[in-house]
DNA sequence: TGCAAATGGTTACATATGAAACTATAAAGA
DNA sequence: TCTTTATAGTTTCATATGTAACCATTTGCA
């Protein structure tokens, strides 16, 4: 009779990818969660605003692969702690432009090097050739996410 | 003055890895969630039992990178639906051996090909050389997860 | 033996998350 | 201009999840 189908997790790509990504993410997030009491979503919002000041919540959602509810909540929490400011848009009063405050920027500037250091540690385990292929593969497998107007 | 630090998500490895893994996982899970009303954790438990009948909850937790509470809940839900059975262990009455029931196996056998097909679709986008490097990198980056007694 | 410490598994509680409904405003069309 | 439709963002509700406390049993060792 036919052998019953079975799935070997150790060889199943989606699973291995998922475990790897979660491990790496958590290594980083556990650090800023503890030190600055920021959730992953909150940090993502801060990071994107640190680079692109004045985006709206909608823009942030698109750029971070988060849904708008998650962004709304993260922004509310950050505004509460005065880590970012909301400015109602002149031309469309439904939307607000978001910017890090001085104290938001201060925290941001501490987390960025920390995140980059984690990335460096990860890459250090690889040879130059392996690093090259990793970047290449991430490009090739990049999900079809709409990145509107750069 | 020094330029302010900033993190470019598009180039930040942990982020890209995370988005990719989540997209891939969700592609698959959305299908069996809808068709069989199974959560990701439930499916993971079923998959591991489909391959290794008789494991205890503890074994399952170790092999699936899930914590014991998640396993306990998944198992409870599956037992409720009679997709798996629990048999108290002879030699240690705290633990129970888990096995798919006939109907659990039937569902399992439908999902496995579906999962493998998704994996195939993903790999089809890559050349043989790229596939090789992907597997290699996943090995090299494999998180230090304890896999006790095979 | 008998008792403290460890372990498998569950439960309780508090928090996070997602889907859908909702509010306010803007855009499109009659 | 009036009315419908779409959009930005928030709130609500139901569910998922993690942490810590817990129960039952077993192990280690006095």
Largest interface: A-B, 52 and 52 residues
Highest-level CATH class of chain A: Mainly Alpha
Report how far apart the termini of chain A are. 56 Å
Helix fraction bin of chain A:
55-70%
Instruction: Quickly give the CATH architecture of chain A.
Output: Orthogonal Bundle
Secondary structure tally, helices of chain A: 6
In short:
Chain A has 150 residues and is mainly alpha-helical. Helices cover 63% and strands 7% of the residues of chain A.
3D structure, described in words:
Two copies of one chain form a homodimer. Chain A has a single domain (23-141), classed as Arc Repressor Mutant, subunit A, CATH 1.10.10. The longest helix of chain A is centred in the N-terminal third of the chain and has 24 residues, at 13-36. Helix content of chain A is 63%, strand content 7%. In chain A, 27% of the residues are buried. Chain A has six helices and two strands. A two-stranded antiparallel ribbon of chain A has the order 1-2. Chain A is globular, with a radius of gyration of 19 Å. With 150 residues, chain A is mainly alpha-helical. In chain A, helix 1 (13-36) packs across helix 5 (102-124). Chain A has helices at residues 13-36, 40-51, 57-64, 68-80, 102-124, 128-141, and strands spanning 84-88, 96-100. In chain A, a hairpin with a 7-residue loop joins strand 1 and strand 2 (96-100). Chains A and B meet through helix 1, helix 2, helix 5 and helix 6 of A and helix 1, helix 2, helix 5 and helix 6 of B. The structure holds a DNA duplex (30 and 30 nucleotides).
């Amino acid at each position: 009779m036919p052998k019953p189908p079975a799935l070997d997790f150790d060889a199943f790509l989606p699973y291995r990818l998922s475990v790897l990504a979660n491990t790496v993410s958590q290594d980083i997030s556990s650090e800023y969660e503890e030190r600055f009491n920021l959730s992953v979503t909150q940090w993502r919002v801060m990071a994107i605003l640190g680079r692109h000041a004045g985006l709206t919540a909608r823009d942030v959602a698109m750029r971070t692969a988060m849904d708008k509810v998650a962004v709304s909540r993260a922004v509310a929490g950050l505004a509460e702690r005065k880590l970012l400011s909301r400015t109602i848009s002149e031309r469309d009063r439904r939307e607000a432009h978001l910017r890090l405050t001085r104290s938001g920027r201060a925290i941001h500037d501490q987390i960025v090097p920390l995140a980059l250091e984690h990335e460096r540690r990860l890459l250090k385990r690889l040879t130059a050739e392996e690093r090259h292929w990793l970047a290449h593969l991430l490009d090739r497998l990049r999900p079809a996410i709409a990145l509107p107007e750069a």
